[in-house]
Amino acid sequence: MHTGLDDPRFLVPPLPPQHLSRPRLLDRLDQAAPAALTVLSAGAGTGKTVLLSEWARRRDESVAWLALTPSDNNPRRFWQLFLEAGRAAGQSYPASAWFPDGTVELVDSVLRSFTEPPARPVIVLDDAHMLTHPEIVAGLDRIILRWPHHIQLILAARNDPLLPLHRYRLAGLVKELRAADLAMTTTEVRDLLERHGVRLPDEEVRTLEARTEGWPAGVRLAAMRMVDDEQPKGFVALLAMDEGSIGEYLTEEVLTALPEQTQSLLIRTSFLDDVTGPLADAVTGVPDCRSVLTALARTNSFVIPVDPERITFRYHPLFREMLRQLARSQSPGAQQEQYARASAWYREQGDVPRALHWSVRAGDGAAIRSVLAHGGLAYAFVGHQDLGPTEVHPGPPPDGASPDELAEFEVTRRAIEALTVDAASAEGRYAVPGRLPIDHDPELTVTALVAEMMLGEKLADFGAVDVAATRLLADEDLRTSVEAVPGLRSSALLAQARARLGAGRVTEVDQLLRRAMAALPPDETPVVRLAALSLIAYVSVSARPRHADEAIDQAEVLLAGDRELARPVILDLAVARRAHVRGNLTEMDRALRRARAAGPVHAGIGQAAAMAYAQATLLAARGELAQAQALLRDDPAVNRTAVGLFGVVRDRELAEIDTALGRPRSALQRLHPHRDTAEGLVAQVAAARAYLALGELDRAAASVRTVITTPSPYVDRLLMVDAALCDAEIAHRRGEEGRTAELLDRALQLADGEFVLPFVRATPDLKPVLNRHGTLRARWPAPITGVPHPDPAFPEAETLPDALTYREQAVLRLMATSMSTAEIAEELCLSVNTVKTHLAAIYRKLAVGRRREAVFRARQLELL
């Protein structure tokens, strides 16, 4: 055996290069000093040794250090090393202290004869999980219980030592630091990167912290690999499986230390986000997996219990990615079988959404049909479950199928189309979704009606949506099947509200939204509540802006409290509309970029049209009139929905652009067909501005008066404010100073600080009046100097001249991982050739030649 002078195991280890001090943890160790025992229990690479090394080096008193190995789990050997470590740190034990055959006698002899120094000696046992021999454990227990004031023990271990920690906690004898305590904060991650000379934007730092969950070894390895990387931002998305770094570390330090059967369990269940013992039993075919997972959660920081009862577990994100890479080396048939087993298990448990997801991944046509027909489509509709872009095949109808079986096959085929096809494809296949004559089976009838609603929304066939929703909600024979799916009634009411809104029946929308909120089950279906709040916000912006604010705030709270909720596109469209009427073009631009990046989930032509309208209004507000005009005139979704109220709205916006471009007669000609319609009221202020441009003040006044004096559900507060301001401009042109001031005061009262955009548009013409009326000028919500421009602190993101399709966006998201082309194809249920076609299109549209360049360029464009 080495003496304490030359054995490196007795030396405090050196600190690593670019070491980052962590004062908050050093303070925790200082505060633990009064306790007899301090335990640092966490997995590999969590920084236990480095932390203790720095803490020992900054102490005035010496620290006895012993780095343990598996061979030290022998009482005679361990206690010799224990005494030698103490001597190496300057402690003096009498020669009579050694009792080779009695651990308890040794401990008592040493500590009884030990002269207590001014400060208690500290002994650090590194890798203390090696110590499992009962005699060693008993000796340590005796030190802690009998001699707590004579010595401070610090144990660093990958799992809890075999000591009665629960007793120590009750007696106040132990302090503990665990993996969650040792995880790096976002600030520490940033500081460590900077010590390596790597600077990343705050968002990328947060992404790195989230992907590593603050695992110090993962952060350090990532920093080391980014030092010479020309594009460190792109590395953040690829770090988990970058060959030779984190994946290799996890394989060698964590996985290979486990029994082969345990390794197989982890690899074969790695495709699951959460795993339970019974689910693992079903997937692997091996019984009693729960005991294995429970033991791993106790001894391994990379298997993490999700609940206090330790029923459900998850794997650390980087560990899971490494396991998934290993799982991909299995035969495709083996993986498909595991997916199918997971689907069957979830269906037995009544978890229809997950059963549907894994049946699709397994490519099991019969299972897909069965799940969809019996509630799967309804759950997907309620939960906004997105299966696409996928190529899902229901398989052929069964041989010799009866009429009922053929009807079920047709319903499930239509259900698959409702879930997976985009609006353009749906339009090519169905002129009208059409009713499916399924009346004998309530569950199947519900599936058929949900499919009709979903396809109707994709086709902007608002009548079909309304009819299907009405029957679903009113048919008493369907009540039990509808109530069996939490949130389905509210979701159908929301679909009906969207259909009525699209059809211009705005007076009926508010009541449907109230009914949808009232029908929500308490504390359930947050995704439906989020969808309802988002739609409420969208329709309330121009009439009840405070109501819209409340809905947006509640939606943001829901999103902040549940990471699994996807941000609805309609919520960002509501935020964009609110920003627009407040004249905040920067916020509007940000909201629209978020909406574009989100991609559609069961989206249809109506949502695409709403997006195009919002983008056009932003362009017009920025003065990019030609681009706004082209978008409103040529966008297919806008043209498809430009009927009724929305036809008037489209023509109103185009007329405003015509007037701004000096073509007021073209504007009036465009608005003429709507002059005598009920919906035409929304365009009367635009007509008044065109008449103003022509100098026809009486006609302008008549148009404004129509808006002000006609009771109509189409006239909201925003339109009334706009009408009052236009009336003020007319009075100003007539030289009626007093009336102008009176009308401006009325407009300000109506706006009540909630609308800014109409005042922005009116400022240039009314600036002389404002300069003469200080009280009006002081209340004016828009800059007097002119129209505000986007805040230069938030530069506009570049836009692609040729936008990526939804499938190309899905492929792009997986390009930011380490997946091969074949693996991307498998993940999306596409053929390899289809993926290659999408890759070629992505490279062309992003103007790049390589995968990493594509990922980097996509991040610049905020597509990722």
Automatic annotation (TrEMBL):
Domain HTH luxR-type: 797-862
Xref: InterPro entries: AAA_22 (IPR049945), P-loop_NTPase (IPR027417), Sig_transdc_resp-reg_C-effctor (IPR016032), Tscrpt_reg_LuxR_C (IPR000792), WH-like_DNA-bd_sf (IPR036388), WHD_MalT (IPR059106)
Keywords: DNA-binding, Transcription, Transcription regulation
Chloroplast as UniProt keyword: no
Entry annotated with the keyword Zinc: no
CDD domains: LuxR_C_like
Pfam family membership, one: GerE
Ranges in coiled-coil conformation: none
GO terms classed as biological process: regulation of DNA-templated transcription
One MF term in the entry's GO annotations: ATP hydrolysis activity
Name of the molecule in the record: LuxR family maltose regulon positive regulatory protein
Native organism: Paractinoplanes brasiliensis
